[in-house]
Design brief:
Two copies of one chain form a homodimer.
Chain A lengths: L9 H15 L11 H8 L3 H13 L3 E4 L3 E4 L7 H8 L2 H22 L2 H16 L4 H19 L2 H24 L5 H15 L3 H20 L2
Antiparallel strand pairs in A: 1-2
Chain A binds a DNA duplex (30 and 30 nucleotides) through helix 3.
Chain lengths: ~220, ~220
DNA sequence: GTCACGCAACCCCTCAGACAAGTAGACAGG
DNA sequence: CCTGTCTACTTGTCTGAGGGGTTGCGTGAC
């Protein structure tokens, strides 16, 4: 039975209840659920609410309904997905993951970068310098520079990881800079040095510089 | 207007139509959709069908509805997920990403490991040695050992990344070992050394050993 | 005995209407 | 300027009805 106290929509609670029962094994994979009228009565809700709950789970790929046949279990669990984990994780944990990805990318970029990659790196770094006034623009252009490093590494998996991390970190960075606007004078040098290391194909130096920069970023979050 | 030909449930077609309009930019991120009655009339469908379509997109995280306020766009697109990228990527690209994640994890594990982590590391390494006969078991127990390293790092984002990479690499590793069964006598030493480095809280050594082992793995794939 | 056909029960799909519950902006009063 | 109330609008939920598809059983022919 569904709890009558209405904190979140009934359909959403019914969806959770169904998912819990599916996980529990009440309806195995490929099995058919009871009919709408039966199940709605059993749960003590209207058919509409049950149907909406089924639709919600269908959107997640757990259930599939076939007219005339019934509703069937097509997946035992919702793929939680990396994005949900990232969203729920601490900012520091995400930054640590970003350090892992980006230092390795800098390493690879040093040996794989093309002249086009170099052009993009210099261009995005210049944009970053130009946007030093507005915090949001500064964060976004900085992100573009780092994305250019990832692009120079020519590894789509690493690039995809970076793009997954960015949204979670962006808000936190903006908030941090707003609360404590650091001069970050050495920042530009660090970035410029990273470009030079990549240009000179010095993989070890690129990795070291990248790590140094990001570790400093992490320190700003752990310090508070 | 929704096409009247009924090949697929109306609610599903409405969901597609809404998603197409969202992608097209008709309702920007964070914007409110028209009221249900208005939108249903505009699309030429009943309010129930529209609501089920909204629920389907809500299940995918694209829309969020708040009673009394309206329905809002919370994502511009359905996340295709890292899994698809990993599945389509070259094995070498995935291994490179794994190197990034795992070397950093070894680094973190050296400073964060608990005694329980150490126990799990030794236990999984022993299981790995015991399973040296059967290729599949060997690969799986090896995976468990590396997963234990990730667990010792105490970073859920990195752990999630590892679990995402494993399925793609597993098949490739089994195929490789079947084709070219290497003695891998030095392998065990490398893993044992990694455990010792983690036990001794030697972060730099742990990273170095982890990198050496995985780079050798990568070489086996790039060599052919 | 076996197979094909038809039918009936069951199921999901869609619509319409009504009322409840919540939100947010307008507005008057302090 | 702030605050509380009120109202129009929005989503949430239920009910009843009819349409159309699927499945499986029973029947009859071979």
């Amino acid at each position: 039975m569904i709890s009558p106290i209405s904190q979140q929509p009934l359909a959403a609670r019914v969806a959770e209840e169904l998912l819990a029962r599916i996980r529990q094994g009440e309806w195995p994979l490929g099995h058919k659920l009871p009919g709408e009228t039966t199940l709605a009565a059993q749960l003590g809700v209207g058919r509409s609410s049950l149907r909406e709950a089924i639709r919600e789970l269908a959107g997640k790929g757990v259930l599939t309904s076939r007219q005339g046949a019934g509703v069937f279990v097509t997946a035992l669990d919702v793929e939680q997905g990396l994005e949900d984990v990232v969203r729920a994780a601490e900012v520091t944990a995400v930054i640590e993951a970003r350090i892992a990805v980006e230092t390795e990318a800098a390493h690879l970029a040093a040996s794989r970068r093309t002249s086009a990659d170099i052009r993009l790196l210099r261009k995005t770094l210049a944009a970053r310098e130009a946007a030093r006034g507005v915090i949001e623009d500064y964060v976004d252009t900085d992100t573009e520079f780092h994305r250019a490093v990832l692009a120079a590494a020519h590894n789509e998996v690493l690039s995809e990881l970076f793009d997954t991390f960015v949204p979670r970190i962006r808000q936190a960075m903006i908030a941090m800079l707003r609360a404590q606007p650091r001069p970050a004078a050495t920042d530009a040098d660090g970035h410029g040095g990273l470009i030079e290391a990549i240009v000179n194909r010095d993989a070890e130096l690129a990795r070291t510089l990248s790590r140094a920069h990001l570790t400093e970023l992490l320190t700003n979050f752990t310090a508070r």
